[in-house]
Design goal:
The chain has 334 residues and is mainly alpha-helical. Helices cover 63% and strands 2% of the residues. The protein binds benzoyl coenzyme A.
């Protein structure tokens, strides 16, 4: 379960001498930072790599609604509930833009959904952890959306036009999500001792999984070299992870919270925070389907897909009826 079945053929970088004329021209366009558009010629491995990454990203947005959905009915005020609902709705929208961007590469949304539901496609490891208290809504917004922004801002400049353009809007909305999460953390940290301890507990549980979101260390990242050559990836996993640590540690200090890493310290010579060892075994276990909530998340998606079948059928029947009408009747009806 949960193994990537998409063979992209992009785990080694093709050298210029091994490229044919079309591939050389393609690489030259990438190097000149010209965007690649759906109708442009592209190597098969570039297409497959994008389908892999964009669909994983889309699935993450959709599965990412589930941990937060757990708290909609228990939000502490009407205002917090309205904000959380709006955020979750935004994630559905992000999934939609991303599935649409993947479809421009010649794959159907049905195929992508099937790969997720069959456990063949990945989604972000972070969404396989449980949301145990209201403070987790703060920690997710602050840390998970914070990590998402750091990862996705560079994607606004990636080489594939539809993906880059989708990311511009996604990043604007993620920025609002991150602020709402930090606002929840601030409210808890300014509250009672019990509220502050909920915030600390949430940070303790979400800190390391948030750092894992950026993917394996550079030395173990099989896709990075070719994705960097194609300008799908503009920064390495470790570079972005470092950015996350550097940005978040002062925010935790402002909140009066302690990052759960005894080895964390600022290094004057590099100007960066040095952080402790990440438990990569835990990360790989989550990827294999053995995280705390993997089975629950997939079961919830399968149920939702099954329960929504009547609605999809109704939409398809309506579209077919509409298409069968002569165009003058269609215009009068609309
Ligand atoms: N979780 O060679 P690597 C969000 C896989 S949405 C699971 O470095 P790559 C949000 C990787 O797929 C967050 N799997 O891969 C939503 C690869 O396996 P395959 C999602 C992971 O692609 C709602 C293998 O490990 N964001 O933030 O070069 C609410 C080796 O890795 C993970 C995106 O998808 C992981 N964390 O780099 C709130 C952004 N990390 O496919 C927030 C777009 C790695 O070869 N994606 N793997 O079998 C990317 O930027 C890149 O795909 C990654 C990984 C940096 C994630």
């Amino acid at each position: 379960m949960y193994a990537q079945m998409v063979e992209t053929g992009a785990t080694t970088v093709k050298s210029v001498t091994d490229m044919d004329e079309a591939e050389k021209n393609f690489q030259a366009r990438i190097d000149r930072e010209i965007k690649i558009e759906p109708r442009d010629w592209m190597p098969d491995a570039y297409r497959k790599t994008l389908i892999r990454q964009i669909s994983q990203h889309a699935h993450s947005e959709i599965v990412g609604q589930l941990p937060e959905g757990n708290w909609v009915t228990r939000a502490p005020s009407l205002q917090r509930k309205a904000i959380l609902l709006a955020k979750i709705q935004d994630e559905a929208g992000h999934g939609l833009y991303l599935y649409a961007a993947a479809e421009t590469l010649g794959v159907s949304r049905d195929e992508l959904t099937e790969a997720l539901l069959d456990g063949k496609a990945k989604y972000s490891s972070i969404f396989n952890y449980p949301t145990l208290s209201w403070a987790d809504m703060g920690a997710i917004g602050w840390l998970v959306d914070g990590a998402a922004i750091i990862n996705q801002i560079p994607l606004c400049r990636c080489s594939y036009g539809p993906y880059a353009r989708a990311m511009v809007r996604v990043c604007k909305e993620e920025s609002f999500h991150q602020r709402q999460g930090f606002d929840i953390m601030m409210a808890l940290c300014r509250g009672s001792a019990a509220q502050k301890s909920l915030a600390q507990d949430a940070l303790n549980r979400w800190w390391w999984p948030s750092l894992m979101m950026f993917g394996p260390p550079d030395g173990e990242s099989v896709n990075s070299a070719q994705s960097a050559a194609w300008r799908i990836k503009l920064f390495s996993n470790d570079e972005l992870r470092q950015r996350m640590v550097d940005q978040t540690v002062p925010q935790a200090e402002y909140l009066g919270l302690t990052i759960p890493d005894p080895d964390l310290h600022f290094d004057d010579s590099s100007g960066h925070y040095v952080y402790g060892k990440i438990d990569w075994e835990e990360f790989y276990q989550v990827l294999k389907g053995n995280g705390p909530c993997n089975r629950e998340r997939l079961a919830a998606r399968r149920t939702a897909h099954h329960d929504g079948a009547w609605f999809r059928d109704a939409l398809a029947a309506h579209a077919a009826k509409h298409a069968a009408q002569p165009s003058d009747q269609r215009n009068a009806a609309s």
